[in-house]
UniProtKB/TrEMBL annotation:
<keyword id="KW-0511">Multifunctional enzyme</keyword>
<keyword id="KW-0326">Glycosidase</keyword>
<dbReference type="GO" id="GO:0008534">
    <property type="term" value="F:oxidized purine nucleobase lesion DNA N-glycosylase activity"/>
</dbReference>
<dbReference type="GO" id="GO:0006284">
    <property type="term" value="P:base-excision repair"/>
</dbReference>
<keyword id="KW-0227">DNA damage</keyword>
<protein>
    <recommendedName>
        <fullName>DNA-(apurinic or apyrimidinic site) lyase</fullName>
        <ecNumber>4.2.99.18</ecNumber>
    </recommendedName>
</protein>
<dbReference type="InterPro" id="IPR011257">
    <property type="entry name" value="DNA_glycosylase"/>
</dbReference>
<dbReference type="GO" id="GO:0006289">
    <property type="term" value="P:nucleotide-excision repair"/>
</dbReference>
<keyword id="KW-0234">DNA repair</keyword>
<dbReference type="InterPro" id="IPR012904">
    <property type="entry name" value="OGG_N"/>
</dbReference>
<dbReference type="GO" id="GO:0140078">
    <property type="term" value="F:class I DNA-(apurinic or apyrimidinic site) endonuclease activity"/>
</dbReference>
<dbReference type="InterPro" id="IPR003265">
    <property type="entry name" value="HhH-GPD_domain"/>
</dbReference>
<keyword id="KW-0456">Lyase</keyword>
<dbReference type="Pfam" id="PF00730">
    <property type="entry name" value="HhH-GPD"/>
</dbReference>
<comment type="similarity">
    <text>Belongs to the type-1 OGG1 family.</text>
</comment>
<dbReference type="InterPro" id="IPR023170">
    <property type="entry name" value="HhH_base_excis_C"/>
</dbReference>
<dbReference type="Pfam" id="PF07934">
    <property type="entry name" value="OGG_N"/>
</dbReference>
Length: 313
DNA sequence: ATCCAGGATAGCT
DNA sequence: AGCTATCATGGA
C-alpha cells in the first residue's frame, strides 16, 4: 500500500500518508490521454464513465468527485495504490544510469486503464504526437461516448465497443487520424464481435469461425501470459510490438512489458551506449536488464528522455 | 521546404 | 527473420 488511509472531504477524498504520487508525473508521462491540467498541480480526467480531479496541495493529495465506494471499486486499482513503489525505485536505482531518471520521475505511478480505450488510443498513437493523440481521443469521446455532466459542463466517457462500432472508417477519418482510421474501424469491429460471441458462447456451441473470433476478446487476451498476450494483441490491425507492449503495460497489468518508441530508443542509446540497436533488439535488451520491473524502468526513462529532450550523438 | 511525432504494414530479399 | 517505402496530418 502506498497510502495509509482515507479522509472524507467536501465532495471527495484526501489520501493520508500517500507516497510516490505526483499528479504531474502520473499524467504527463505519456501513459494516458484523457487527463488535462486545469490548474498548477490539479488535473481533470475521465475514467470509466466518471469525471474526477486530482490535486496536489501543501496539505496532501486530494481526489475530487470521488466517494469511498468509487475509490474501493475503481480508483484504488486505477491509481495502482496497492503497490509500493519505494522498493521498485530502490531496486532500479541500484543501476546508477537509471537512478537519475527514477529521481526525475519519482512520482510516477503506472495506471491500470481500460483495455478497450487503451487499445484504440495507442493505435492512434502510431507515428503521431501526444497533443494530437489527445485531441483525437477527445473527439472520439465527444462523438460516440456517453455524455456526463460535471460542475455545469458536459464531458464524455470513452465509447464502448458497441458505441464506437457505429463509427465508419470515413467518420473516423473526419476526426483527423488519417491512415489510422482503417485500423481503428477494423479493430473496433473485431473487439465488438468477440464480445458478442463471448455472450453467445454461454448459451450454445460455437462454430469454428466464431471460436476464432473469440480469440480477440480483450478479457481473454488480458488473462494470457506475457508472450501469448503480446502476440494476441498484434492480431488487431494497427497493433505492432510497441503498441502491444503499451496496452499490456497500461491496461493489463503486465509490468514486464518494455515498449520501445523513439524516445526510449534514444534514452537507451544515451544512457546505455547502445547505439545502432534495432527496435526489437532494444526491447530484448531492456527486458533482460530490467526483468519484471521493465515497465517501470521504461516509464522513468521515457519521461526523462522526453521532458528533457534527450539527444543522442 | 524538410523533418518529426509514444509505428505498423505490405512488399521486398 | 530483417530491411525499406509508404502511410495522413500539422507543427517546428
Amino acid at each position: 500500500m502506498d497510502y495509509d488511509h482515507l479522509e472524507p472531504t467536501d465532495g471527495g477524498l484526501k489520501l493520508i500518508g500517500v507516497r510516490n504520487f505526483k499528479p504531474k508525473h502520473i499524467f504527463e508521462c505519456g501513459q494516458c490521454f484523457r487527463w488535462d491540467m486545469v490548474n498548477e498541480g490539479r488535473y481533470l480526467g475521465i475514467v470509466r464513465g466518471k469525471v474526477l480531479e486530482v490535486s496536489e496541495e501543501d496539505t496532501g493529495i486530494f481526489l475530487h468527485n470521488v466517494n469511498e465506494e468509487d475509490f474501493r471499486t475503481v480508483f484504488e486499482d486505477y491509481f495502482d495504490l496497492k503497490r509500493e513503489y519505494g522498493p521498485i525505485k530502490e531496486e532500479l536505482s541500484k543501476d546508477p544510469l537509471l537512478k537519475e531518471s527514477v529521481e526525475f520521475g519519482h512520482g510516477i505511478r503506472i495506471l491500470n486503464q481500460e483495455p478497450f480505450e487503451t487499445l484504440i488510443s495507442f493505435i492512434i498513437s502510431a507515428n503521431n504526437g501526444i497533443p494530437r493523440i489527445k485531441a483525437a481521443v477527445a473527439k472520439i469521446a465527444e462523438k460516440w461516448g456517453t455524455p456526463i455532466s460535471y460542475n455545469g459542463r458536459t464531458y464524455h466517457a470513452f465509447p464502448s465497443p458497441l458505441q464506437l462500432s457505429k463509427a465508419s472508417e470515413a467518420d473516423l477519418r473526419g476526426i483527423g487520424i488519417g491512415f489510422r482510421a482503417k485500423y481503428v474501424a477494423r479493430t473496433v469491429r473485431a473487439v465488438y464481435e468477440a464480445e458478442c460471441i463471448e455472450r453467445e458462447s454461454l448459451t450454445r456451441k460455437l462454430t469454428d469461425d466464431e471460436a476464432l473470433s473469440l480469440e480477440q476478446s480483450l478479457d481473454r487476451i488480458a488473462s494470457l501470459p506475457h508472450k501469448l498476450c503480446h502476440d494476441a494483441l498484434q492480431c488487431f490491425e494497427g497493433v505492432g510490438p510497441k503498441v502491444a507492449d503499451c496496452i499490456m503495460l497500461f491496461s493489463m497489468g503486465k509490468q514486464e512489458a518494455f515498449p520501445v518508441d523513439v524516445w526510449v530508443k534514444k534514452a537507451m542509446s544515451f544512457f546505455y551506449k547502445a547505439p545502432e540497436m534495432s527496435l526489437p533488439m532494444t526491447r530484448e535488451f531492456g527486458q533482460d536488464k530490467f526483468g519484471r520491473l521493465s515497465g517501470f524502468a521504461q516509464q522513468y526513462l521515457f519521461y526523462n528522455a522526453r521532458e528533457n529532450k534527450v539527444k543522442v550523438e
